[in-house]
Amino acid sequence: MTNAVLLNNVAHADLRIITTRGAAWGDEVMSTVVFPVEFRSLQAHYPIVFQKTADATGFQPIALFGLQDGQNLFLGPGGWEAHYLPIAIERQPFMIGKSGDELVVHVDLDHPRVSMSEGEQVFLSHGGATEFLERVNSLLLAIHEGLQDSAALVEALLELGLLESFVLDVERADGSQGRLAGLYTIDEDRLGALDATALERLHRAGHLQSIYMVLASASNFRDLIERENLRAGRGA
Which of 87, 110, 114, 146 is the one with CA 20 to 30 A from 195? Predict the structure, then answer.
């Protein structure tokens, strides 16, 4: 459950946000929603795949951090072990709200990152926004725009039949087996069979680069498996 309230510089004058990365602050998650604007940065570290939305009426792109629920293989003794932190992770505990037609910022006061004594200050002493809050605002705007970009990308993929389900069978170093299912990726055969008109349409809409970033990210599955084996070897 969340306790989301409208952020304001009076009620939350002393609000601080802990930015240390770790399970204690809610980072032990298998995946997060991601957006096309960050695909180039994401593909260097995480597999980018698609999953059905919570209401099962559509699809959304996600980045995988682990191979089973509640597992984040990028969390180590020193924090988050990747050079890029997805937008939806970095923005926590803030979220977008609406007041009429205006976008506003909400904060989850029950989130473990919320503090009154440690972490990044949200407001200046005179009530103005800190650089930290300005960064949060830019992240939330990126999410607002990213949701629209993701919807357009998914619509194009479905129109051309480019999404296919896949199953990843994992053989761990200790001999045990695992299976990752219920996810979707780009159908490379169908992509390769598209005519010039369809490819041009994808390119002009900015989707072709996103598609290639998704395909390139698949090489990171090997890294996830290696990370899981290393964690098992350490007894973590």
Answer: 146
